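Look at a sample.

——
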Amino acid sequence: MVFAEIETLAHELMAAYESGSMIEVPPSQRPGFDLNAAYAVEDMLRRWREAGGHKAAGRKVGYANKAMWRVFKLETLVWGHMYDDTVHYSESNSATLALAHARSMKVEPEIVFGLKKEVGQGMDAATALAAADWLAIGFEIIDCPYPEWKFQPSDFVASFGLHDALVVGERLPVKPEMIPQLVDELPHFKVKISMRGELIEEGSGKNSLKSPALCLAELGAAIAQRTPERPLSAGEVVSSGTLTAGHLANKGDQWKVEVDDLPLPPLTLQLT
């Protein structure tokens, strides 16, 4: 895709994001569109959002499951930016969130990291955790502009990673002496997600690339490989991939995620 085509597509995707309109023909069904073009669109959208006063706050992960890589012929996970107006920190582990242009929302419980150092290539779970200032349980709200939730990884990247909002629960400082235990616990901890008191699904840390810490390391390596001029850096927030399936959500829902085997309190989210 040439620059003019990328810019035209970016305008279309930005308009859909701002208005809540649907995109009937995903970019992947158009000639010349591939993952490289998708990241070019994503970068253009980031620059436009920042020019409009909304600073990039971090990255969110997509396809944190190697089985999906084989299906979609991916070499690594994919990502999109999150922004200072889409990342929210809860008070008392309870949040109320109003979303203006929701189309087809899903909620996803995720481990969230706040970084104090750059995460780059060649890191394992322990060294990636050493770059984290804190971790928390969070809810990511994703919203799909494509009919029937049918899209390719390139469509995901070009449309803000489907990211609508991230709600972050109580933050647990990552101290050096905690890292060996976290390396052991993060692949195995359990979560329970419920809606208005009804259990919807149980999940596990292994669902995020076998461990959210490994997912963080993989994300840092993938970003360093693709955009070495914009590495995963100190101050960024990372949403490290869903721990359960994504679940359709509506205004009026009250969601709760509970964590076993990690010292993180439950987080409740009310959608309005």
Remarks:
- The longest strand covers residues 132-143.
- Residues 67 and 131 are 27 Å apart (CA to CA).
